[in-house]
Amino acid sequence: xxxxxxxxxxxxxxxxxxxxxxxxxxxxxxxxxxxxxxxxxxxxxxxxxxxxxxxxxxxxxxxxxxxxxxxxxxxxxxxxxxxxxxxxxxxxxxxxxxxxxxxxxxxxxxxxxxxxxxxxxxxxxxxxxxxxxxxxxxxxxxxxxxxxxxxxxxxxxxxxxxxxxxxxxxxxxxxxxxxxxxxxxxxxxxxxxxxxxxxxxxxxxxxxxxxxxxxxxxxxxxxxxxxxxxxxxxxxxxxxxxxxxxxxxxxxxxxxxxxxxxxxxxxxxxxxxxxxxxxxxxxxxxxxxxxxxxxxxxxxxxxxxxxxxxxxxxxxxxxxxxxxxxxxxxxxxxxxxxxxxxxxxxxxxxxxxxxxxxxxxxxxxxxxxxxxxxxxxxxxxxxxxxxxxxxxxxxxxxxxxxxxxxxxxxxxxxxxxxxxxxxxxxxxxxxxxxxxxxxxxxxxxxxxxxxxxxxxxxxxxxxxxxxxxxxxxxxxxxxxxxxxxxxxxxxxxxxxxxxxxxxxxxxxxxxxxxxxxxxxxxxxxxxxxxxxxxxxxxxxxxxxxxxxxxxxxxxxxxxxxxxxxxxxxxxxxxxxxxxxxxxxxxxxxxxxxxxxxxxxxxxxxxxxxxxxxxxxxxxxxxxxxxxxxxxxxxxxxxxxxxxxxxxxxxxxxxxxxxxxxxxxxxxxxxxxxxxxxxxxxxxxxxxxxxxxxxxxxxxxxxxxxxxxxxxxx
Length: 713
Fold this sequence. Notes:
tonb box; disordered N terminus; mainly beta; siderophore uptake transmembrane transporter activity; transport; 6% helix; four-stranded mixed β-sheet; receptor; globular
């Protein structure tokens, strides 16, 4: 599903191909209206637009993933306060292609505590392209679950005829459920040709409280994040050049469903792009670099014990894309890109420990993953009713890693690990995957009130460095490699094959001729994944009776199928009473391992959301009802907890003056105790209570009174 706001795209000049206009002039943005336009962007320049107006409506948003929570088919795995992991149609984490301003950012952490969307604050986002399922090959390779393309606020230039222009915006918010607060600022100085901008933000919160009468504090849910970015841009009549640099600091972030917490994350990046328009077409070129220094341990007071872990990761890459119109109705897109990732993951010795000393444990040593991809895409509008798109893509993935070692604590304590390290080091660890993708889609619009689509996609993804090269087979070592929120231990397999997904999707859409008053859409889909990376019990590393089993990653075939339903209607449009609009979404997905019929891990049960919105003048209000069914189909291999169904009611209201916006809201109005189906286990509480009883599901936040204000100048 792809969403678009053409009004904002024109105002901001920010369609993916409107190159010389890809910089915003100093003109106020109009109100945002989001409408459904289809499973695949046709043309791909259409985008899902979530402007700062949406961020202000959701007072207190700290995680950029929250901005796409209303897109049909999109859910999220619970992480830290700024680090949730999106999932599309049951496929999440590394299976989704996420780029931030053209940068492919990899989780440099054995627990995936620093995913791509954690590196950009919601206040800095202008546009998100969200493709669920049938994403075009031009949206990126090395994924099977869909694509999310994030674009930050565009550079601002002075209006024509004005020698110099300055503007700014500051925002602040408060959330009662965790005493969370945040502030952000955007400042610009520019003339017609050059622009210099700054964006900064700070968000911080304590452990949140769960709903219910006891208002239980959920341990290891505190967080703090700081982001700074500077953008220098220049434009001419048909060209735009921009250079951006920035730094992110997360001094602490608790993870209730992991054994570890984040105790430091510093990311530094440089990102440059050039966009040019020529008589024959348009070109976009980007190059980027990011260095991440990451550390984990148990935050004092949240979990007992100590076990320092360090990670250093470097992402480096480029992309070049061209769009070439031909013969009036044809459009060709070609591109080439490179992504190179380097990873070192080591665990320093603990002074005085018999098991974690005297050497550093090398989990991933000099890990290397290079991917080079090339694509070609052809789109043609044969008649006003029929449009087709066909894309082909090749990605070559080259992986390797250096020698590893245990803590070196002697044969009695580390003998098994020493033997595993020796076996690992003796093997040829280099791997090369030649992956091939194809996407084909046809759109049929028989009338101005009907849009129908049918498509097929073959998508592939190579394993990550952690999936192939995590080698520790002792419980303590394997437990540290866990990006699933279940507190189990995982051991990689360097012989894992790439995942290959075959997806078929169809959609039937009805709407008014102007696509503004009402719409309804149903999209069933099915995906068969060859060599899906799941898990096996392995007699070498685990016992099936363990409360937290140790599991070895393994290829299986998997089948996923489901349906998305969305719709909206305008109930009232009157000058005296304003506009009343009702919209809603419903999603259901089922996933199973083909050879066993058992449920895949982290499948979202049936869920729906409906919202009644009212606006008049500068005033806007909304009443939102979220319904989630009971999660009864779980992955028993991983001891996945079942969760009961629930209903939540949220309300919000706000008023916009010429330069000030005030927003108020209440989440979980009736303070319901509930458990998000993809929230994982409450490992922090289990440890805090001396490992008593069976570990349970992670409680979600209780009632929260939220307030936010934005001032423009």
